[in-house]
Design brief:
Length: 57
């Protein structure tokens, strides 16, 4: 497992762990998880979405 974790962190990759019952899981780095969480937070409200769209222009 350590080798897989090292590869995920070093290469910014993901690993899908397949299950026989089709309830797969995905392993990502903490950095990637934090990035997703921040994005979800920023897009959570309409006001934030509008401010980000306005800033993008």
């Amino acid at each position: 497992m350590k080798d897989i974790a090292d590869e995920i962190n070093e290469d910014d990759t993901t690993v899908i762990v397949a299950s026989l019952n089709h309830k797969n899981v995905v392993i990502i780095s903490q950095k990637e998880c934090d990035s997703f969480q921040e994005t979800f937070y920023l897009l959570e409200t309409e006001a934030n979405r509008m401010a980000l769209m306005k800033a993008k222009k």
